[in-house]
Amino acid sequence: MNNNVVIHRLATGVPGLDVILGGGLPEYSFNLIIGPPGSGKTTLAHQIMFALATRELPALYFTVLGEPPLKMLRYQQQYSFFDCDKMNESIRFVNLSDDVATGHFDQVLARIAQEVEAFSPALVFVDSFRSVMLEAQRQPEGAISRQQFVQQLGILLTGWQATTFLVGEYLSEGETHPVFTVADGMLLLNQSVHRNSMVRKIQILKMRGQATSPGIHTFRITSAGIVVFPAAVVIDDTGAVAAADRSPRSAARLTMGVPRLDDMLGGGLPAGYSLLVAGPSGSGKTILATTFLVEGVRRGEPGVIVAFEQTPSQSWTRTIDEMVRAGQIGLINTRVLDLSIDEIVQHLINLIQKMKASRVVIDSLSGFELAVAPTFREDFRESLFRMVAALAGLGVTVLLTSELEDRYTDLRFSPYGSAFLTDAIIVQRYIEVESRLKRVMAVVKVRASAHSDELRQFEITDKGIVIGDPVLGFEGILGGQPRRTSASGTGD
Length: 492
Prior knowledge:
The protein is of the alpha/beta class. The protein contains 16 helices and 24 strands. Strand 23 (474-475) and strand 24 form a beta hairpin. It is elongated.
């Protein structure tokens, strides 16, 4: 017989936060929300309060010296989570400034106890708790100490079966305080500025009784409040983490929409594969990628494109625009330069699930890196690995483009060392023929599948990519300086 106590978890109402908390906040827990000024502590506290407060579960919000309630509410009303009706029926604000000004912990504790007994709250917030500790220091002889105050406050609120949140500006990770020991949960918010980019991060330092998501996660403050972006995970409709295992691959192959390319791939691109298309500027990577999406729509397979590059001006791209407007292709087109990879990936995953998309294009990895805030670029390769794994878990087929400088003398497929992440690689390059540059492409690999090893010349026309016959008469085009060995044709 299992007599273990079942801890009920409360949904915070903050997108992504329950995921990194391990399922929500434990009911009746004693929590700290800490971080430097401007990091979003008060906004997070209000967002949780408005999500949880009801007539049956009222909330009591104590303010101290940080901000008067009226000033605080003036700004919090700008967020969509703010509900004026709850202010009258389930949320009450109490200003402790006068009690804290006495400098006595006994007085502060007595006032909190009085309000808790009168209102019987299920949720209690103290903002800023650090102000209480700094101001109430002139204790008379025989009065309770800081440690005793923290312990008695915890006992009081736990005895009333209230879920408690203490908000404070504890700036240093090495800073210690008696409340850190008493707390059941600690949420650390932080922010950093690098040139013109602002990155906000959240970390669950402590949460008793449940496994939290380790590491640092990014978040953004929007008009809807705080949105947390868990590190490259798939979230289902209930807000829980979906299975991370790769979806079973079928034997089906997807047509690329470019005549002859399917034959080069051994019969098309296997469904669920990730394909890297690498080549120099102007070689046709984006055209190949968008053709792949258009072909999918033609076959009843919705797609999504994440565009970090400028949209080409060819007339056939109008078809893409029409399909986006018709809802057949989802578009994420961003020029913001302070994103985290996890934020981009979560937007992508949400759009894939919403559209039930089976084809995904990321154009390009070079633009992707530029869009990511500088503080994340040193971990770009690791983040790519997590992104590809998350997309593989959804079972979609992914095409990524990668910009490469064509030096002729070396063979590279990605400046990020990410070629090993993908299941297939197509390389596009230039060759010089009679003082003219010609485009050529080759299939470098298709994992667990036979494929062509021919180098084929191709052209870009008004109708898209047209692949010609194998290139003859050249050696070392991919691995070294191209040189002509015969007068034979070039396969036009």
